[in-house]
TrEMBL record:
Gene3D superfamilies: Band 7 domain. The keyword Coiled coil applies. One of its GO terms (molecular function) is protease binding. Keywords: Coiled coil, Endosome, Membrane. This is Flotillin. Heterooligomeric complex. Its main location: membrane. It is found in: Membrane; Endosome. It comes from Chanos chanos (Milkfish). PANTHER family: FLOTILLIN, FLOTILLIN-RELATED. GO terms for biological process: positive regulation of cell junction assembly; positive regulation of cell-cell adhesion mediated by cadherin; positive regulation of endocytosis; protein kinase C signaling; protein localization to plasma membrane; regulation of receptor internalization.
């Protein structure tokens, strides 16, 4: 069956299957009835009033000491719990507390025997630490831990502590009187020093005040001089500024007059420009327009005449070329005819052929000159090179006349110049 216990209690299960016994601090455990046994041990904190009466100190003075200790079995430490179970299992809390109390009391008495009354009375913390340290090391072996130890009371029946108090009181009173006398002495000395320092401070203060007054007067004089200088400079600057202002006003007046004069000149120039433009619009522009019109009419008439002349000259040239081609074709036909005649009449000599050719030349010349004879008017237009135009026309005529013998020579194979030279010879 199951058994439980609180955090301030421990259970020990022993018997069949539990070797060594099972120890549980605060929890539950299953126990087989009849073959296993369960026991409980308290883990509560125990308050012990450790009292040692009439214990002789190191100097043989009997005193009584009372201390308060808090102890408990340590359930979290398995080894200490096992030791406590071995020593206190089956005992009540009172019995356990009595064993711990006797142990603490013994250690407390031992420590008192090694100390003087003064050491115990004056340094209670040191005494408590020694008891706590010595008792803890012994109680740990029993599984008990000392939580705290405090010295509660120290007294004796021989009025030793009272005598120590009287002596201490007398000492304190003496020290108080000495301290008071020393305090009064120090107070007088300090008062004198304070008075001396006060007088010295007063003199120093007066000196500083005098220095400050002197510095004030000097600085005031310097400042007054500087102020007067600044005032004079300010007055001079004011007068200078007034003069500059007047001069600037005069300059601005002059500038205004200059601007007004400039504007008048500009207005006059604009009036002149307007009148010139009016004159130009009323007189010059119509004259220029009329002149431009006449120039354009003359230029158009000139171009018309040039184009008519060029057209007429081109017509004449083309007509002349056509007639020349016709004459050339006719001459080529006659030359062929004459060639055939010459071949037929091989008995004719070259002279006879020349005579026949010469007889035909006037007719050929007449035919060539017919186009020129039929021209009613020849107009030559030039921008100043009339001699060049005439020379060009003459050149064309001469060219025609020059090509005529070559044409005859090409058709007949007779060199006219050579034949003529031979005939004359």
């Amino acid at each position: 069956m199951f058994y439980t216990c609180g955090p301030n209690e421990a259970m020990v299960v022993s018997g069949c299957g539990r070797s060594p016994p099972l120890m549980i601090a605060g929890g539950r455990v299953f126990v087989f009835p009849c073959i296993q046994q369960i026991q409980r041990i308290s883990l509560n904190t125990l308050t012990l009033n450790v009292k040692s009466d009439k214990v002789y100190t190191r100097h043989g003075v009997p005193i009584s000491v009372t201390g308060i200790a808090q102890v408990k079995i340590q359930g979290q430490n398995k080894e200490m719990l096992a030791a406590a179970c071995q020593m206190f299992m089956g005992k009540s809390e009172g019995e356990i507390a009595q064993i711990a109390l006797e142990t603490l009391e013994g250690h407390q008495r031992a420590i008192i025997a090694h100390l003087t009354v003064e050491e115990i009375y004056q340094d209670r913390k040191k005494f408590s630490e020694q008891v706590f340290k010595v008792a803890s090391s012994d109680l740990v072996n029993m599984g008990i831990g000392v939580v705290s130890y405090t010295l509660k009371d120290v007294h004796d029946d021989q009025e030793y502590l009272h005598s120590l108090g009287k002596a201490r009181t007398a000492q304190v009173q003496r020290d108080a009187r000495i301290g008071e006398a020393q305090y009064k002495r120090d107070a007088v000395i300090k008062e004198a020093h304070a008075m001396q320092e006060k007088v010295s401070a007063q003199y120093k203060n007066e000196i500083e005040m005098a220095k400050s007054q002197r510095d004030f007067e000097l600085k005031k004089a310097a400042y007054d001089a500087e102020v007067n200088t600044k005032k004079a400079e300010s007055e001079m600057a004011y007068q200078l500024q007034v003069a500059k202002t007047k001069q600037r006003i005069e300059e601005e007046k002059m500038q205004v007059q200059v601007v007004e004069r400039t504007q008048q000149i500009t207005l006059q120039e604009q009036e002149i420009t307007r009148k010139e433009r009016e004159l130009e619009a009323k007189v010059k522009k119509p004259a220029e327009a009329e002149r431009y019109k006449l120039e354009k009419i003359a230029e158009a008439h000139r171009l018309q005449l040039i184009m008519e002349a060029e057209a007429e000259a081109e017509s004449i040239r083309m007509k002349g070329e056509a007639e020349a081609f016709a004459v050339e074709a006719k001459g080529r036909a006659e030359a062929e005819q004459m060639a055939k005649k010459a071949e037929a009449f091989k008995q004719y000599k070259e002279g006879a052929m020349v005579d026949m050719l010469l007889e035909k030349l006037p007719l050929m010349a007449e035919e060539i000159s017919k186009p020129l004879a039929e021209a009613q008017k020849i107009t030559m237009v030039s921008s100043g090179g009339s001699e060049v135009g005439a020379a060009k026309l003459t050149g064309e005529v001469l060219d025609i006349m020059t090509r005529l013998p070559h044409t005859v020579e090409k058709l007949t194979g007779v060199n006219i110049a050579q034949a003529t030279s031979t005939r004359m010879g």
